[in-house]
Each structure stands twice: as C-alpha cells, then as structure tokens.
Prior knowledge:
Its EC number is 2.5.1.-. InterPro entries: UPP_synth-like, UPP_synth-like_CS, UPP_synth-like_sf. This is Isoprenyl transferase. Its cofactor is Mg(2+). The chain is an alpha/beta fold. The chain has a single domain, classed as Undecaprenyl pyrophosphate synthetase, CATH 3.40.1180. Helices cover about 40% and strands about 15% of the residues. It contains seven helices and six strands. The protein has a six-stranded parallel β-sheet, sandwiched between helices. Helix 4 (about 120-135) links the parallel strand 3 (about 110-115) and strand 4. Helix 1 crosses helix 2 (about 45-65), helix 2 packs parallel to helix 3 and helix 3 (about 85-105) packs parallel to helix 4 (about 120-135). It binds farnesyl diphosphate (FPP). Farnesyl diphosphate binds near residues 34 and 73.
Amino acid sequence: MPAGVTTQVSDTREADKAPVSPLHVAIIMDGNGRWAKARGQMRTLGHKAGVNALQRTIRAAGDLGITHMTVFAFSTENWRRPAAEVSDLMGLLRTFIESDLGKLAKEGVCVRIIGQQDGLPKDIVECVRKAHDDTRHNSRFFLQVALNYGAQADVVEAAKRFAAKVKSGEAEVNDLTPETFGGLLSTHDLPPLDLMIRTSGEHRLSNFLLWEAAYAEFVFQDVLWPDYDRVHLEEALRIFKERDRRFGAVEAGHVSA
Ligand code: FPP
C-alpha cells in the first residue's frame, strides 16, 4: 500500500472484542434552550448551564472508565440561529478554553476540537490551536469537541483528500477501504464509537458522527442537558451494558430457527 494511505478507525470488531463498558462515548447535548425557557430566562443562560453540565460530565466520565468523549458543541447548521446566540455560544467556548483548559490540562485531559475552521472567528481559531498545543501530550482522558462540525461535510472532505491522493499517484482507487477511509476523517485517531447519547428526548443524529456511529449503541435520555449529571451518565452506561452487541454476527449455536 502506498505510503500516503493510513488505516484507522473502522468498526469491524467482533462482539467478543468489544468493551463491556463503553470507552468512547459521544453526546449530543440537547435541551439548553428549553431549560432556559422553562425558567423564563434567555437561551444563553441555558447554554451557560450546559457548560457546567459538560464539566460535571467530563469528571464523571473519567471516574466511570470512559477514556474518550466526543461532544457536539456547534454544528454547521447552528449558524442559522440568531447572530446574538451564535456569538454567545462562541463566547462560551472562548471562556471554556480560557478558564477551564489549564485545569483540564493538569488533570491529564487531551482536548481536540474538530470541525471546519473556515468561518470561525479568528480568536476562536487561536483558542483551538491553544487547546491542541497545551494538552497534546496528555493521555488520561481524550475530549473531542465538535465545533462548526457536520458529519456529511467531514465525509466529503475525506473523499476529496482520497481523490487528491489518487490524482497525485500517492494512492490507488483499490486502496480505499472502510479502514483507509476512516483514517481520513477528522476523528481518525479515536477508538470506535461505543455509545451515542442524546438528551432532551429527541431521537435524531443531526449530522453528528454518521460514519463513526455505524455500530454504536444509542441511548436517548429524557433529561435536558443543563440538568445532566453523574446519575444520568451512570444510567446510560447501565443501559449500554444490557445491550447485546453482535456487530452483524449470529451467536454460535443459534444457527437454526
Ligand atoms: C442544543 O440545545 C445545544 C447546543 C446547540 C449547544 C451545545 C453547547 C453547549 C452545551 C455549551 C457550549 C460548549 C462548550 C464546549 C463551551 P438547544 O439550544 O438546541 O436547545 P433546545 O433544543 O431546547 O432549543
């Protein structure tokens, strides 16, 4: 295989090799607006409370044996929100990086921000760079924040990268496999996704980790994100452990009807 082609995350595991507890958990942190509305407050207050919930969840996740967490902070579609809300969300990310990064770095958390940098305010791009630089040597817990992220765009970018490799002679068309394609996605060096959580009672993926979620278990929890706490994460892990993950296989001894 040509040197320019790497193989990375693709979920072709066998059931007996899957972890009993999820190692990589993704969260769609939904319900901030409704939480604020229920209190007669501005939506921004819900997002602020959402950051506190995220801090609690990161700590609980580390305690509960989760090693990798990917959270959806801002989608490519969220630009359709009022400019003031977009600006407040960017401000929260800036504050999160400025005030929490030092603490997270000391606790051994490696922070990576995925998504398109084009279109982000310059100072946010600088925050992204700082987060990567300050925490890249950490390995106790891996936090991936999806910002200006859309899974379809990520897949399209990966396809373009592969096409460019073919054009330059670095790769051949037949080098493209689920593994090599996974290696071109922004999530390329993370373990396969085990568990996808969405809060607030909605049951959609909303263009989040479409490729990576191929064999993830889905848990939808009827709690608004700002109220999310360790007990909710524990509940999600309990549900996960009850699931029978077969990865498309049939259990030996269960061949006949
Ligand atoms: C969905 O709730 C939530 C978002 C679009 C933003 C999530 C962001 C945070 C939790 C805080 C920022 C994160 C970081 C890393 C600083 P919604 O607004 O769609 O709620 P609704 O469906 O009730 O209106």
